[in-house]
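INFO batch 0412 | record 1 of 1 | parsing
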Amino acid sequence: MRVRTSAAVAVIVAALAVPVASPVAASAAEGRPGDIVAVSPSAFHPLPGQPTGTRAWKIHYRSTTADGVPNTVSGTVIVPQDGRPGPRPLVTYAVGTVGMGDSCAPSNNLPYGTAMEANLIQQLTLRGWAVVVTDYEGLGTPGVHTYTVGPSAGRAVLDAARAATRLPEAGLSADTPVGIMGYSQGGQASSWAAELQGSYAPELKVKGTATGGVPADLLEVADFNDGSYGSGLVFMAAAGQDAAFPELRLDSYLNPAGRALVAGMKEKCVAIDAIAGSFKRISDLTTRNPLEQPDWQARLNQSRLGRTAPAAPVYQYHALGDELIPYAVGRGLRSQWCAKGADVEWQTIWVGEHVSGVITHSPAAGNWLADRFAGRPTHPDC
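INFO prediction complete | emitting C-alpha cells
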C-alpha cells in the first residue's frame, strides 16, 4: 500500500540538540483526548534563526489510535506575540509527508528552521492566528509512525486543537474559532479530521477545513504509484498500516530487499526514503502482493474518505497535473461529499504538480479560512 503524500523532495536537515526546559509532566494514565501530558518551551523559525515574533511550546497530549485505544501524541503550539487583545483563531495544521524517523517530526525541526512547511505555517501566524502542528501517532513518540492511517491522523489533528485550547500559556479557550488545514498526507489527515469532528470533537468551534492533494483512496493511489517515481512511499505507507495493525504481518510478504528497504524507512526522512524506493514495483520487493489480500484491503479501506459529510464547510483543491495523487481521486472525494450534502468549494490547480500545489495555493486556502473566521458566507459549487 502506499501513498506518497507530501512535499517529497525537500531534504530535512538533521537537528542539533534542543536547549529546552524540562517538560512539566501531567498524568498520562487518565484524562480526556486533548488533555496535555507534558509541555516545554520551544521555538518557531521558518529558516534557521529567522525571527517570527511568536512564542512556541512543545506538547505531548492524549489522543486515540485507529482502533480506539488511548495514546500520546506530540506537537507544537505557536502563538503570535503581536499585542492582539482578546481571542484569536486557531489553525490545527496537518503537515505532508516528512518521513517515519523520529528526527523527522515537525516538533523536532520547527525550532531550527528545518521543517519543510514552516514558511506556509508562518503565513498563518502573520495573519495573527495561533497554529498547532501535530506530529501524528508514533512520529517523535514511542512506536512506529502510523503513516496514512486516516482515523488515527484525523484524531491527532482534532486532539491537537483541543490541547492548544487547554494550554494556559497560549491564551486560547474552548470558544476559540478553529480552522483545519493540510495538504497531501496532511490532506488525508485534515479531511479525516473534518469527517470525524462532528462525532469525535463536536465541542470544537470548527469554522472550516482547507484540504488539498488528498489521497482519499489508498488502494487507488497505491496502484497509480506502483513502479513510479514515488513508489518507495508505497512501502512506507505499508509500514505505517502494519504499525497500526500488526496482524497484517507485513514482513511475511517482503523479500530480503523489501525488508531492508522498509527497515531503513522507519529510521529516515522522506527525501532519503523517496530516493531509495523510487521506480520499484511491489513485485520487486515482495514474495506476494499484500494488496491482493482481503485483510489488507479491509484495513486500507478503513482509511478511505468520503463516507461522512464534514459538519463544517470545506475548501478542497487539487492539481490537475498531480503525479502522485491522481486528480480523479480528489474529484471523487469531492463528489462523494457533495452527494452527502456537504458544503464544499472545489478548486482545480491548473498549472503545476503535487509539490508545487501546496506552495502556490496556500495563500488562497488561507484567504478562504479568513473568510470563515470572519463569518462571511461560503460559496459551495457542488
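INFO post-check: Confidence is low (pLDDT under 50) at residues 1-29.
INFO record closed
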